[in-house]
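Late entry, evening session. Most of the bench is empty. Finally got around to the prediction I had been postponing all week. Sequence below, unchanged from the version circulated by S.P.
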Amino acid sequence: MTEGNIGKTLRDLTIPMILGILGMVSFNLADTYFVGQLGTKQIAALTFTFPVVLVLNSLNLGIGIGASAVISKAVGEKNRDKVVRLATDSLTLGLIFAIIAMIIGELTIEPLFTLLGADQGTIPYITEYMSIWYAGVPFVVIPMIGNNAIRALGDTKTPSMVMMTSAGVNILLDPLLIFGVGLFPELGVSGAALATVFARALTFFVALYILIIREKVISLKVIKFKELIDSWKTILFIGMPNAVAKMVIPIGAGIITGLIANFGTEAVAGYGIATKLEYFAICIVNALSSVMPVYVGQNFGAKKIDRIKDGVTISEKFSIISGLVIYAILAIVARPLSYLFTDSKAVSDVIVTYLRIVPLGYTFQGVLLIINGALNALHKPFKAALVNISQMLILYVPLAIITSKYFGIKGIFTSLVASYITVGAISHFIIHKDISRIKRRLSA
């Protein structure tokens, strides 16, 4: 990644990740599609689980981002021992987190979701889903951190194949376990959770195989406790600000879901479906942003700052062009697309409203994602965190609370666009200023 044509390098890294992200989007869409066939309360229940699942995944992803940043830099420095140590200790840290999350989660299902605004009609379905999902948390945590470590080594193809295979297993098991086909029992919402856990378990074992057997970057050597703590500090220096910032996103989403709940269960169901479709719409720029920490990290380790600047600029231009194209497409297909997931006119109206407003901000959302990854790789985690927190808590949520009173759901969705445009533009100036500052420091 430190040599050759920059555009080609980013393209070659991104294409496999597009397939992987499409796989994970299909994973989530399959749950939404099949659970949606059960009824509005069931899909609303799944929507309520989304912010909580995101909070836990954000903590986990924070560790993964921290691991990716420090491992990719160690690769750029050609320090194999450091790579092994950091990869091993990041998985150990993730396992501890998984056990804690599993215990706390199982004990707090009903009070937590009641606080988020779920009514007594949806709580039983939420409990069905989350009691199983929490039990499978280790199968979610380890692959997420493991795949970040694999990408940091420069391999974006293997994590993508793992993600696609996992999605395929989930899509196959969803209808069998939700509706009961042949020898499979009809489990409803519980079936969706079981399908998810089984699919994640597959990624768990494959990720461990790749790291332990193929790449040989996991060491069973016992080290001193102080060395372990020092290693965790290195990972968490980048990981914790990111975890906190990424937690803000689902916390904000929980607040937004609560605002939308004021407009009825159909509104919540429509919002849940629309946000799942959004992941599909922005999968390409998401894939590009996911490889930026690796690309920037390795070039940072090799002290090739001009390549970092050019890579960021190329990525920003791509985000702007692709965002405009996606907006045009969604504006046209919003209505027929909505009816693939629901027969309810009320639910469909919310989906269409979302897809004809929010994609206006995709160009700047993409810039925001790309720059966030670059800032982390440059070991600027607090700036990256501040960017995320500003977009969600300082701008989006306050604006949504105000505009929802005067313009309803349209006000909430328009507030999201305004937050993307504002913070995306600001983050552009932040990253280029930091890159120039780093270049001057290394040249001195």
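Two things to note before I forget:
Residues 6-443 form one domain.
The two ends are 25 Å apart (CA to CA).
Will write this up properly tomorrow.
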